[in-house]
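Observation: inputs received (chain + magnesium ion).
Thought: call the complex predictor directly.
Action: predict_structure
Action Input:
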Amino acid sequence: MISSIFVVGPAGSGKSTFTAAFREWMIKNEYDAVVVNLDPGADVLPYEPDVDVRDLINLGDIMSEYGLGPNGAQIVAADMIANYAEEIKKNVDSYDSDYILYDTAGQLELFAFRASSNFLVDFLGEERSMITFMFDPALARTPSGFVSLLLLSSTVHFRFYKPYVNILTKIDLLDDDDLSDIAEWSENWESLYQSLIKEKPSMRRELNIELFKSLETMDAFKKLIPTSARMLYGYEDVYNTIQMVFAGGEDLEKR
Ligand SMILES: Nc1nc2c(ncn2[C@@H]2O[C@H](COP(=O)(O)OP(=O)(O)OP(=O)(O)O)[C@@H](O)[C@H]2O)c(=O)[nH]1
Ligand SMILES: [Mg+2]
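Observation:
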């Protein structure tokens, strides 16, 4: 059965690099994986895509054809991908691979909040699929930033109704104290709450405390998997977690 893994996260969080490094790890461990670039706006990629949406959609053409700037063109492109879904699927299927890694658009909102993406994820990931959500240490290292990322990842989860795994990227950029704080927050929500209320009082802190309570009610806390593409670290853990999810650890049905 084909397993589709959609790599999602905020701009610059390390989606493309994760995709490249995870594929490298898979190949080293004799699992085959096909990599699909779903980001029409990608300039340079850290991997050679097997299937590339840029072969089907050209941002420059969209800008001149519709008289749009780069942001408007990205939105049109995000919707246009749905028109090419069958072609993308045909190309993916021609590889006859067990794992398909989909690297998604730079701007999270283009992937997470367009109706076309729901269609695309259902269509491309028809057999079984999941989302890996990237936590960038630049944001995850503060309690408020961590809560913001939890909110984003659970928003993505409830948009797509797919099982998901939260992944901390670029851990080589974190010092040991920051890394152990983040690990602790992801495993023990009470420690996150304690860190949150120690932040300087502000409206932002109050908002994050309220968000924290909602996330707690929704049971949105998940263990984060620490990774570093630079050190090729954490991918075995990612692979094992994905296996567990697909083996039935999570509800795959729409709720
Ligand atoms: N030190 C370090 N840098 C990393 C790691 N992973 C990614 N980066 C860097 O983080 C930056 C963003 O990485 P990308 O993989 O392009 O992130 P992205 O989410 O695909 O970015 P967009 O598609 O542009 O939104 C690049 O400069 C990467 O080299 C890592 O594990 N360690
Ligand atoms: Mg990218």
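Thought: report the result.
Final Answer: The pocket of guanosine-5'-triphosphate (ligand 1) is lined by residues 9, 11-17, 39, 106, 169-170, 172-173, 228-230 (CB under 6 Å). The CA atoms of residues 43 and 93 lie 25 Å apart.
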